[in-house]
Amino acid sequence: MAAYCLPEDTCIYAVGDTHGEAALLDRLLARIRADAETRPARRRVLVYLGDYVDRGPDSRGVIERLVAGPPPGFEQVCLLGNHEEMLLGCLEGDPRSSLLWLTNGGDATCRSYGVDPEVPAEALARSLRAALPAGHERLLRELSLRHSEGDYLFVHAGIRPGVPLERQRREDLVWIRRPFQESGADHGCVVVHGHSPVPAPEDLPNRIGVDTGAVYGNALTAAVLQGDRRAFLQVRAGR
Questions:
Q1: DSSP-assigned beta bridge partners for residue 231
Q2: Domain 10-235, CATH 3.60.21.10 — does that match?
Q3: Domain coordinates of the chain in residue numbers?
Q4: Per-residue pLDDT tens digits for 101-123
Q5: Is the pTM of this model over 0.90?
Q6: Strands (E), 19-79
Q7: 165-196, pLDDT tens digit by residue?
């Protein structure tokens, strides 16, 4: 398998699924800022891998931090997760999307915005649209499907093995699990993703998984990528 790397003047911090854990995100960002001071780089890029909302206590707070933009000296990229896709479907008043979202932690997001989740889909959509600050809804609607830096591809869930990158489907980029995770194929890049919780970061030749289940009491993780080197930063509740 080819050796993949980034330009030496670029350092990437790829943040795994936050799921409403705004306090943990604040602590991880503090660690990222401190780590960046030890790494000479012309560009420092924060890539958020999606799933900012649902299940955790403060989805609104997480979105507010993304809307506020990156720390000084950083660029910021925010990717679409499947939970944001479900929320956007709910905002359109689709009953099936609303039910799927609410049964996957969307009720916690509703409450973080002061919205009652126990109402019909159309009423829920109206209430959410009224409760979401304009900047929050704009950010959700403008989330990117993927981002590339050097030999790394950043997506929420993964890619369909064997399919050229330019022909990857939105559904796979946002939702895929086993066909991607079980593949040892050389994708022509290293895919950095979240979406599927694991006890510890997955550091494999063809992919890096950084959803370590923060919302379930585990760590919130960021992959640190510079040149051909990989490292990880983590924070946990109470530590």
A1: 224
A2: yes
A3: 10-235
A4: 999 999 999 999 999 999 999 99
A5: yes
A6: 43-48, 75-78
A7: 999 999 999 999 999 999 999 999 999 999 99
